[in-house]
Amino acid sequence: VDQPLVPKQFHLGMFEIGRPLGKGKFGRVYLARERSSGYICALKVLYKSELQQGSGVEKQVRREIEIQSNLRHPNILKLYGHFHDSKRIFLILEFAGKGELYKHLRRENRFPEWKAAQYIAQMASALRYLHRKHVIHRDIKPENILMGIHGEVKISDFGWSVHAPNNRRKTLCGTLDYLPPEMIKSGSKDNWYDEKVDLWSLGVLTYEFLVGEAPFEDTPIMTQKRIARADMTIPDWVSKEAKDLIKKLLVLDPEKRLPLEEVQNHPWIIKHCVKGERASNREKSLK
Length: 287
Ligand SMILES: Cc1nn(C)cc1-c1nc2c(-c3cnn(Cc4ccccc4)c3)c(Cl)cnc2[nH]1
Prior knowledge:
Layout: E1 15-23, E2 28-34, E3 40-47, H1 48-51, H2 57-68, E4 79-84, E5 88-93, H3 101-108, H4 113-132, E6 135-136, E7 145-147, E8 153-155, E9 162-163, H5 181-184, H6 196-211, H7 220-228, H8 240-249, H9 260-264, H10 267-273, H11 277-286
Antiparallel strand pairs: 1-2, 2-3, 3-5, 4-5, 6-9, 7-8
The structure holds ligand 5GX.
């Protein structure tokens, strides 16, 4: 099968543009079909005028392209290529058949433990892949996760990802909810941090999937204080295994957070993700 969406040079005429799929802070995404192969994709359109506001967004887009185009993992949204015309930059992205995960989360309020565990296992697999390439995502939250047609999660929006280690001040726009203490503590110049920031965010994500709201959700000032003290309460109805994993990720000292390999082998993940002998034998016998 000839590899679609591989040509070196893309241009707008190669695509039929379909319905709008969504919009972000910068730009919109449209359903699109590459004419020669019929390949369906998502075309993200960014206006250069909007990016040149000097808020460093242009650098972010360049980094998003540079980092995401070199990644290949089933739980990371593929960036096939990019091109631009006089006014716009176009990113040719994988189309995620079930859209934005946060919309599913809001609609369902919270996810049952088996579903949350499967999503967290997939996120841990994607983060292990990123960290092996010394890429820190730094913005893991439901809004940056899409869902494929088979219900698998796909990390998208690498606008905030950087190469580790890093001490860039993240101009705090948008929610603080997912930021670890080492990224929000101001004052000390050397805010050096590394991949372990994504472990904290994975803990926040686990909590939000199970509880339906973020653990430190409050007024911005209070959120900052509560993050700095890892001050959260986990409702009693959350299983003790899930509580154990959340507590091992939301640890103030980055060095003491549970490594991704141990997340994938955690009892809560094993319980919901590794098909038992009986289940897989039953599946085989049905074939
Ligand atoms: C919506 C929607 N419903 N269904 C059934 C599928 C989708 C779908 N959406 C996408 C999307 C998609 C859309 N919006 N956004 C958010 C956004 C937009 C612009 C800048 C930054 C972030 C992502 C993508 Cl990239 C890639 N694939 C997508 N698939």
